[in-house]
Structures are given as C-alpha cells and as structure tokens.
From TrEMBL, chain A:
Chain ranges of the Peptidase S24/S26A/S26B/S26C domain: 62-172
Keyword Membrane found: no
Organism encoding this protein: Lamprobacter modestohalophilus
UniProt similarity note: Belongs to the peptidase S24 family.
Signal peptide stretch: none
Highest taxon listed in the record's lineage: Bacteria
GO-annotated biological processes: DNA repair; regulation of DNA-templated transcription; SOS response
InterPro entries: LexA-like, LexA/Signal_pep-like_sf, LexA_repressor, Peptidase_S24_LexA, Peptidase_S24_S26A/B/C
Protein name: Peptidase S24/S26A/S26B/S26C domain-containing protein
SUPFAM superfamilies with a match to the protein in the record: LexA/Signal peptidase (SSF51306)
GO MF entries: DNA binding; hydrolase activity
Keywords: Autocatalytic cleavage, DNA damage, DNA repair, Hydrolase, SOS response
UniProtKB/TrEMBL annotation, chain B:
Residue stretches spanning the membrane: none
Gene Ontology molecular-function annotations: damaged DNA binding; DNA-directed DNA polymerase activity
Family annotation (InterPro entries): DNA/RNA_pol_sf, DNA_pol_Y-fam_lit_finger_sf, DNA_pol_Y-fam_little_finger, DNA_polymerase-Y, DUF4113, PolY_HhH_motif, Rev_trsase/Diguanyl_cyclase, UmuC
Native source organism of the sequence: Lamprobacter modestohalophilus
PANTHER family attached to this UniProt entry: DNA REPAIR POLYMERASE UMUC / TRANSFERASE FAMILY MEMBER (PTHR11076), PROTEIN UMUC (PTHR11076:SF34)
Family from the record: Belongs to the DNA polymerase type-Y family.
Protein name: DNA polymerase V subunit UmuC
Lineage start: Bacteria, Pseudomonadati, Pseudomonadota, Gammaproteobacteria, Chromatiales
Amino acid sequence: MPERVIRSHPARPEPGLGFSVGRAHGGVLSTPPVATTAEPLGVLSGLATRSHRPLPRLRWPVQAGFPSPAEDDQDAAIDLNELLAPHPEACFLLRVRGCSMVDAGIDDGDLLLVDRALEPSHGRIVIAVVDGEFTVKRLHRQAQVVRLEAAHAQYPAIELKDGQELQVWGVVTRVIKSV
Amino acid sequence: MPVALVDCNSFYASCEQVFQPRLQGRAVVVLSNNDGCVVARSREAKALGIKMGEPWFQARRRLQGQAEAVTALSSNYALYADMSNRVMRILGRFSPRQEVYSIDESFLALDGLPGPPAVIGERMRATVLGWTGLPVCVGIGPTKTLAKLANHLAKQHLAWAGVCDLEALEAGEVERLLAPIPVGEVWGVGARLAQRLARLGIDTALDLRRAPPAQVRRHSSVMLERTALELRGIACLDLEMVSPDKQQIRCSRTFGATVSSLAELTEAITSFTSRAAEKLRAQQGEAAAILVEIRSSAFRRDAAPYAASRVVPLAAPTADTRALVAAARAGLNRIYKPGPAYAKAGVILLDLSRAAERQPDLFAEPTADARSQALMATLDQINRRFGRGSLTLANARPAPRWRRREQFRSPRYTTRLDELPVAHC
C-alpha cells in the first residue's frame, strides 16, 4: 500500500521549551528527515531570545533601617510574549477568514498564533496548505487515515487520497479574539 | 577549530515562498529598488537562465513566452529582515560564537560543542527549515575560507542534503573537490584578482592552496597570502562576533520619478537624513560632517548630465536629526541648480565617533545635549512602535512622488498586523 500517512517523528524535547519537528523543504511531511533532526543544543538556548523583561523597581522609597516587607518577594511582571510565543523565532500570526472552525472557537477575523516548532500530531489544529493556500483545520492522523476536519456541521472533512501529500505549515497554539 | 558557514538558499525568493505556498516549486525573482534588476532567483528561475543583476525587462524579453511562468516581486525588506533575525537567532542557539556575516549568512564556531560538526550542521539545517520554512546549506571547515567553499560545495552536490564537512574528508578528497572550483569563487578573491592570478598560472581554488604563500604575497598582498593559508587549513581570520561600528552611514535612493524642484529635493534630502540619523543613533554615534549629493538622470539624451555634492561640517559632532537636516539643506541649497531632471539624491554621514567618547563642548549650553538626546530617543521610539516615518520633521512628506517604485511588493507578513497571512477556514 502506498505510503500516505504523515509519519510521526519521535518527540524531540527542545531545551525546556517544547518540541522541534523536522520537515523537508516546504514542510512536506511524508519525507521526514527523522534521524537527522534533533534539538538545538540545550546549553546556550533560553532567555537571550526572549523579550526584555526587567525586574520592576520598587515604587516606594526604601527607608534606611526599615526595609519594605515586600522587597524579597518581588516577582517579574507576567510576560505575554513568553506565554504566547515560547519559540519567538518559530511563531507567526495569521488572520482567520471563514467560519468552518467556529465550533473550535475560531471565528472570522480572529488572530491565530502558529508555532512551527511543534509537532503536528493527531487532534491538533493546524495550518495546512491546500491548493496553494493556508487552511486552518483539525488534523486527524490515526491508523493510516489522514484528514483535515472542520469544526462546523456543514463543512465536510478534507480526505487525503492515496499518494497525496499533506503539507502542514504549522501548529495553531492560541486564538486571539476581541470580545 | 571547526567553523560553519550557514547560508540561506535564494534567501529573498525563499522568504516569499514561505508565505505564498502557491509559489513553491515555481520560478520566482525578486527585483531591486524601483523594480529594476533581478536580485534574487528561486532555483526554478535560475534554471530558466535568469541572471543575477540582470535588468528584469531584458530577462522578460529574452524569455518571451516563458516569462509568464515567472513571478516577479518587488523587494520586501521588512519581511526579509524579520526572517533574517529569526534565522540568526536560531543559529545563535547552537553556538556561543556567531558572526552574522550578511542578511542571509552566518559563521559559527563549532569547537567545544558536543557532537560531531556534521551532526550539529545537520541539526542547524533541519531546525532553521522546520522553524522558519527557509532552506539553508551548511559548510564546515577548519577555517572561514574553507567553510565558505564547503558551503559552495554543499549547494552544488544535492546528494549531500545541504551539509558539507571538509574536515571529515581525506586531504586527497578535499583537493579533488577544490580542483574544479575557479579561484574567483574563493572568498576574498574577486573577478579582477582572479584575472591577475590567472597570469601566474593560478586558476583554481586548488592552485591557490598549493601556491607557496610567500610567492602569493610577493605578487599580490598579505590578504591573499592569508586566503592561501586559510585554504591549507591554517586559520588566519577570526570570527567577528561584534559587528564594528560603521565608519560612514549612507542613505541614497534612485527616485521612482525624476524631480526638478528644490522643494521636492529638500523633502527627499530631509527624509534620507532622518533615516541616516536614526541609524547613527542606533550605533550610539555622532557625525561631525554630512555630505549631500544630487544627480540627474544619466539616460536622457536631451540634457547634459549634472551631478554635484558638498560636504558640510557640523558645529559640533551630533546625532540630532534637526541639526543634521539643517546642515544637509544648507548643502543642498549650494549645489541645487534649476533645470535638470534629478534621478538620485543621497546623504552620507561622515567623521563618525561614539557619543560617549566625545569631549564636552566648553561653550555649549549644558542642558541642550540632554534635551536633544531625550527628543531623539522619543522620535526613534515612536517610529519603532508605529512604523518607520510615523513621526518626521515637517519637511519629510510621507508619500512623495520620488518614493521608490515597488509595484509588486508582497505583504509585510510578519511585521504588520494589517498585512498578516490569511488562514482560510
């Protein structure tokens, strides 16, 4: 039987940040460079690439002899970049057009955060390339069956036929919407 | 000391293909400022015989019917710069010693890292491709010059899957690979030098590697002797991890349409000076003089060409846009001549120094400097936040006639919220 299933790569932990995934040029997943992809060396990765996040200074003067009781418990402010884009080099924003994913909470006009460092595994919402365009769908890949499922009763799933290749561009990690 | 040179394949064209998947596998060319010449070609465009630097109208005429298969795009530097930053940061995760050599090339020291260099090189390649979608080739060698050549080889030998480690090969094998490479392809040997070397019987990279270094030096220069030594595997060039401050900052443009009036030239010069001053402040520098130049179109037969330039010294070294613009305008007023159709103008900031190293001016008002710095810092911050050109001096108009043509520019997919790629669903 011809190979038509996206092969899953063994998860390769990337230092403290998530997983990396190898792709051939353009991200065709049916030719995985499995043995070759691996995590960047851990020693040197990390905070240098994050947004600048200085410790906040105390807002009140510190009197000699009477230190603030909060001084030792000061925390860094919450960094949204760190939350939303754990791999800043691999994260991209896309704009949603259409309503086939409304039951997954993705509406027309929303912003999608896409992390290309993540493995496109079964059940994840992904950006796939269909007919040369970006399409957002839920990836089904189990037991030799690969399809892209909509999250709306009126939209049928896109089934992959024998020999067809599915190009996954990235994995959607967050939806940003105005309320 | 194993060194890697990582280089993005067809960088500009590849950036476009990442965000326009329908262009994958197709001939794509990216055009220079004003959509004039071809500055990047996808592999498929190279296969059609389109040359680097070729005027696009010429290539199109030559290709005739085939030209319709080629997608020509204006340069989208906002996109390329952002993608370049991503690539460089990813590579920086692999080694603490990195020299960013150009927008799409980086040297990395691989010594002291765990794992064989070729394996690290392959991880770099796969991670950049996976995270950004951009294909890269990795060349590894004992010196920067050999790493460059290894990169060249990695691009040619498709079977190596983008990675070439010369250190893993026997000396005989390395020589066999260097033998067919013209000496002009060697890093630091240009076309003119290659001609001179040909007279000495040095035609290939291998010839230069085998030439006695002392003889090379006698016939050419110490620089070329170093190149010859580097080809033998003797490292003479270190990684430059901190890019040196620029000695001059230039901002000049060929206009989209020629201009004749002093008012329009003043707008252009104000805008170029503002941009140059921004770059100057980014390197914490100050300029002691500014050169202004204007040039009429060289392609008009009805009028004699006119070109003029003038250096205007500043009262004291400064990074203040207002002072630099005033000096540039004074210079422009001296060289402007009514009549010619001007096609190009520019400014160059000269005699640069570090602001922190300047002797304070005995006669200057002490708080003026601080006020100027605070104002300029605010200006730069606003322009960073709201986009270049959001806040300018009143003379710099936002959408003038002379602005460069970029008719076929793709959206700035990664730097503008209103130009993001669309995900259909």
